[in-house]
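Lecture notes, continued. The same structure-token format from the folding unit now serves as the input rather than the output. Read the line below as a description of shape only.
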């Protein structure tokens, strides 16, 4: 399931770094620890977006000028979502970077019936592999239109699906069809305008800072419906529990497929 946490922005004009996933990772980790439920202290079965709202870019990063800011968080485990939401609303306000956020409400994104072919956009960068310490491999550029790009994502997806224990070995063997096809015209347009669809981002793992290359572009994914649903909920690629690889469906307004989300016995 995917939910949208909506916060009132107390200080319009406040800012966060352009890439602030590591700040959100720290915030989410703190909220999970505060709740005191040990089974979620090191839980990684979730994915989340960056903060969404009306922004302007400056040297300091992203300045938010909307009255509200949204965070999308997604997980297969409803108990985890309930636990997280309960603990978010235990705080009168939260701080992310220079932003002061007041929890206001929660919406649930209703699931669609996934098919073998779906078009997606990235609402956080896709990272292909987990880097090793003092190794530049994680920053290597691999063009999205190569087979290597799609193959690396297939391998990581099947590995994560196996680790989730949500699928039997027999089921996993049937998920051999997997092909990611980038929107070629988008890539050409970005390159011609001298903009970037791939950047280097910081990520922290056990207090060690790594640098990874993240990719952001629209694409079509050819895969079994079960695989489509898995990556839509739990993200695509590496470091999904640190806010990378979150997707959304292309050409579909998520606000038109939401409903109020209530946490029983919590709010």
């Amino acid at each position: 399931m995917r939910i949208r946490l909506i916060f009132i922005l107390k200080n319009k004009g406040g800012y966060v770094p352009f890439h602030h996933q590591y700040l959100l990772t720290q915030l989410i980790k703190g909220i999970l620890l505060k709740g005191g439920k040990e089974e979620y202290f090191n839980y990684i079965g979730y994915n989340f977006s960056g903060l969404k709202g009306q922004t302007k870019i400056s040297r300091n990063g992203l300045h938010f000028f909307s009255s509200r800011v949204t965070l999308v968080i997604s997980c297969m485990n409803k108990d985890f979502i309930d636990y997280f939401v309960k603990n978010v609303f235990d705080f009168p306000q939260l701080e992310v970077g220079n932003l002061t956020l007041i929890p206001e409400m929660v919406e649930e994104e209703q699931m669609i019936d996934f098919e073998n072919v779906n078009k997606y956009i990235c609402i956080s960068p896709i990272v292909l592999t987990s880097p090793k310490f003092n190794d530049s491999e994680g920053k290597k550029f691999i063009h999205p239109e190569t087979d290597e790009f799609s193959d690396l994502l297939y391998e990581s997806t099947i590995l994560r699906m196996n680790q989730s224990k949500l699928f039997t070995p027999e089921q996993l063997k049937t998920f051999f069809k997997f092909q990611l096809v980038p929107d070629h015209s988008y890539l050409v347009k970005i390159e011609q305008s001298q903009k970037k669809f791939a950047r280097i981002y910081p990520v922290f793992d056990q207090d060690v800072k790594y640098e990874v290359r993240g990719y952001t572009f629209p694409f079509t994914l050819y895969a079994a419906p079960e695989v489509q649903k898995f990556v839509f909920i739990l993200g695509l690629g590496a470091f999904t529990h640190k806010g990378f690889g979150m997707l959304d469906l292309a050409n579909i307004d998520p606000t038109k497929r939401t409903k109020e989300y209530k946490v029983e016995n919590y709010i």
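Point for the exam: Helices lie at 21-35, 78-88, 147-164, 169-173, 184-192, 225-234.
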